[in-house]
Design brief:
mainly alpha
């Protein structure tokens, strides 16, 4: 079962890691380019996406797919889509 589960979620894990990396880069760019006037809502959403992507990856690694599915749904509700989903 573990092998089939790994195959099922491999692409999703890659997409989540990519999402996390891109969100970190965008958040850092937003901070750097803001010149002291941060767009707090965009910054908050960036940090929320980073935290959710990390949490989903950790849940999948711990074989807690049901909890990961709930967070994936919440991630989609805030406007994030993943190619593997």
């Amino acid at each position: 079962m573990f092998i089939s589960l790994t195959m099922k979620f491999r692409h999703l894990m890659e997409d989540l890691l990519d999402l996390e990396t891109r969100s970190i880069e965008k958040t850092e760019n937003l901070i750097r380019e803001s010149g002291g006037t941060l767009a707090l809502s965009r910054l908050r959403k960036g940090h929320q996406i980073i935290a959710m992507a990390r949490t989903i990856r950790l849940l999948i690694e711990q074989n807690k797919e049901d909890e990961a599915e709930i967070l994936l749904t919440l991630l989609e509700e805030i406007g994030v889509t993943l190619p593997a989903r």
